[in-house]
UniProtKB/TrEMBL annotation:
Domain named HTH gntR-type: residues: 4-71
Keyword annotations from UniProtKB, A to Z: DNA-binding, Transcription, Transcription regulation
Record's protein name: GntR family transcriptional regulator
InterPro entries: GntR_C, TF_FadR/GntR_C, Tscrpt_reg_HTH_GntR, WH-like_DNA-bd_sf, WH_DNA-bd_sf
Keyword Transferase among record annotations: no
Gene Ontology molecular function: DNA binding; DNA-binding transcription factor activity
Coiled-coil residues: none
Length: 210
């Protein structure tokens, strides 16, 4: 029997639906409806909504529920700039060692194979996309960068899920672009990586903000 507190279950379920795009920006969520779906009272759902509002995922509406906060152009731009800085810095560090760069590229190739297998499972693909980019940052060994990049994870997964749902032809292009990024790391070409990463992220974010 699941011993997870009702408020935690409501929090996890609602957050997961937001991150995978099952509920969209601007959509109204009713505490009553969520409570009925989960088989709990309104109180734990209200507590869950308060937590999600603190994470800027919901805007609370008194006596009505909450609205899912849309991804704004400013948020998308800020996220893009931070990812360019963190991933680019990580690759420059990785490129100092041929053995390290090649090992990272090999692991990225394995993740790309998994992405091909998940091409029709958009939520899983979004998770693997996050794993691909996170592996680049984690492998560089900068603990501060790792923690900061980790804090961007929810926003990254949400934007990726929204993008591939809006344009399912995007998946194959993203896989091809991931292969190009891995190849740049394999040959220790940080300049090529920076250029390819910029094009890769811009194409994704343009779909989200159409």
């Amino acid at each position: 029997m699941d011993q997870t507190p009702a408020s935690e279950r409501a929090y996890r379920d609602t957050k997961s639906k937001i991150l995978v795009g099952a509920v969209k920006g601007g959509q109204l969520l009713s505490e009553v409806a969520v409570a009925a779906e989960l088989g709990v009272s309104r109180t734990p759902v209200h507590e869950a909504f308060l937590r999600l509002a603190a994470e800027d995922l919901l805007d609370l509406l008194p006596r009505r529920g909450a609205v899912v906060v849309p991804i704004s152009p400013r948020e998308a731009t800020d996220l893009l700039e931070m990812r360019l800085a963190l991933e680019g810095s990580a690759v420059r560090r990785l490129c100092r060692s041929e053995a390290t760069a090649q090992a990272v590229a090999a692991e990225l190739a394995r993740l790309i194979d998994q992405q091909r297998g998940a091409a029709t499972d958009l939520a899983r693909f979004a998770e693997l996309d996050d794993a691909f980019h996170r592996h680049i940052v984690d492998s560089a060994g900068n603990c501060i960068a790792q923690r900061f990049y980790g804090s961007l994870g929810d926003r990254q997964r949400r934007m990726m899920a929204d993008a591939v749902q809006a344009d399912q032809t995007l998946v194959e292009r993203l896989i091809a672009e991931h292969a190009e990024l891995a190849q740049a790391i394999d040959v220790r070409d940080a300049t090529a990586f920076d250029a390819r990463l910029l094009a890769h992220l811009e194409s994704t974010y343009e779909v989200v903000l159409r």
